[in-house]
Amino acid sequence: MSIPLDPDDSVVVLAHEKFPDRAKTAVGVLRYADYDVTAVLDRNRAGETVGDHVPDVRDAPIVESMDAALDVTDPDALLIGISPIGGGFDESWRPDVRAAIEAGCDVIAGLHFFLEDDEEFAALAAEGDVDLIDVRRPPADLTVSGGRARDVDAEVVLTVGTDCSTGKMTTTLELLTAARERGVDAGFVPTGQTGIMIAGWGIPVDRTVADFAAGAVERMILEAAEDHDVLFVEGQGTIIHPAYSGVTCSLLHGSMPDALVMTHSVGREAIHGYEDYAIPPVETYVDLYEGLAAPVAPTNVAAGALDTRTLDDEAAREAVAAYADTLDAPATDPVRFGADEILDALL
Amino acid sequence: MSIPLDPDDSVVVLAHEKFPDRAKTAVGVLRYADYDVTAVLDRNRAGETVGDHVPDVRDAPIVESMDAALDVTDPDALLIGISPIGGGFDESWRPDVRAAIEAGCDVIAGLHFFLEDDEEFAALAAEGDVDLIDVRRPPADLTVSGGRARDVDAEVVLTVGTDCSTGKMTTTLELLTAARERGVDAGFVPTGQTGIMIAGWGIPVDRTVADFAAGAVERMILEAAEDHDVLFVEGQGTIIHPAYSGVTCSLLHGSMPDALVMTHSVGREAIHGYEDYAIPPVETYVDLYEGLAAPVAPTNVAAGALDTRTLDDEAAREAVAAYADTLDAPATDPVRFGADEILDALL
């Protein structure tokens, strides 16, 4: 999967009725993508601006529709920045997608529903010579892992976690930025739809055939290791997730990392959406990840990243210190305090 | 996936140039399926019989082609009982499949290549009103696991192992037979193509979307638990497999078993096909499987099954005793010595 966007391209991001708190992809792209976001579509917030809600990113107007966006910007693409439960296409978005294609914009989506399979969009896109880019469609030529990732020259760092949505992608991208600021030749290996949209390439590991999931990760590692000295690999799920642990396990054995960074959300006590499944002590996770890796490609938890957004600064500092104690490794909240303490432990 | 075969139906099994040693599916079906195998196709062994090679199963002629089989039997289906590396369709089989469809037989295959996608076969099958059954095609409506398997009333037993091809399916089916002989209402949950062909239903877990693998297992457990007191679940791969561990992990967390049976092949020292990956001591596997299950649905290795086919009887007895010592649990070779010792530990 490769997305035809350059750093000097610009996109409009669709986030109707969900910006910013339930628009994880939109906010991820605003914060981390190289290309510019020149408008956000949210019909509930038309007239406001991105800066009203997300500080520290380039500001942009929020408008009610693609037509309205085209009045104020000349984008290269429309990017779907939200995902309803189930990953379907919301029919209320159809006029926006239609307007984008008719204006010559590519459309980029990470839904389970594929834009390319929609007859109207496919016909319009063919007519207008624009691309419909479904980042969640895995390549057709995936195969089983050859067990080769442990032999690459690059240093491979994988983020793991105690649950889904504990900041694995965010931590990975903060580490990437901090490493590059130090002059390290670092690369990002994206494994989910938001990461792929940000990076412009990648394979959605959760959507591959189960037998090929580790092979998909391996393929990305071998490719990216040709170009970089250090690779930061976006983790997924958790090794004790009732539904997604297989994907997590495939990431661990497919990437064969030299070091792990353990992410956790402060105060989280049960698996998100599976409230009968308690989150065990973080030491249990350390033992499981390291134990499972050992016979395949030994690694260790070298640092921790704690999401402290629900705490004030002082409580956050205390929580980070306690987390570091428990892990017996350096830890921080990389969004709040920067990624340097983690990076020092890794490089 | 459901296969339209009843116990009084009969099938012809295709195993060209590979019967019996490289025809795992053919031999599995001969040994364990309820329906009758009335001929085997192997052009290298035409004129011999099944009984010349596989004792203890109902004898049948080996013939050179489907045409020759139709001279001596009136089957309901042709079943592809071998799988080339890569799971492709060998064009030398085309005349046999064509002859089967023209004779009104269904055709059952577990290849990565789907018969239904072959234009000639699809057209012939439509014309003749026969079914092309690709058991490796997962259902289209799979979804994520709800974490519900631990709540079923049935006792769930999962076979796990130290590698692929350590006897997980065989052990599962020997346990099923032995339990039924004791009058236990036991069911079989098939998770791979051979198991599905034997049972006539099931989902090929390795071929599902990675995010849905545990959900596919859960769906089968919930369904089968309605009908049985004990479920024997066919395991796949191993939790430290460089390529397939994600599938194994999804099976563990999707089935949430009450007990595990650890399978191993005596003398195996490295992962099959991944010779640089040593097989660690079996205690390591016990710790990993039990540790990984504990936070989700606690379980333990209650017994062991050792494949001793390379040893003589005395050496086999010694190997089984040593294996039981190491596991600190009862163990046997269920094919050689029967499954009773394992069953005693489980029920």
UniProtKB/TrEMBL annotation, chains A, B:
Residues 44-138 form the D-glutamate N-acetyltransferase-like N-terminal domain. Residues 144-343 form the D-glutamate N-acetyltransferase-like C-terminal domain. Coiled coil: none annotated. It comes from the Archaea. Pfam families: DUF1611 (PF07755), DUF1611_N (PF17396). InterPro entries: DgcN-like (IPR011669), DgcN-like_C (IPR035086), DgcN-like_N (IPR035402), P-loop_NTPase (IPR027417). This is DUF1611 domain-containing protein.
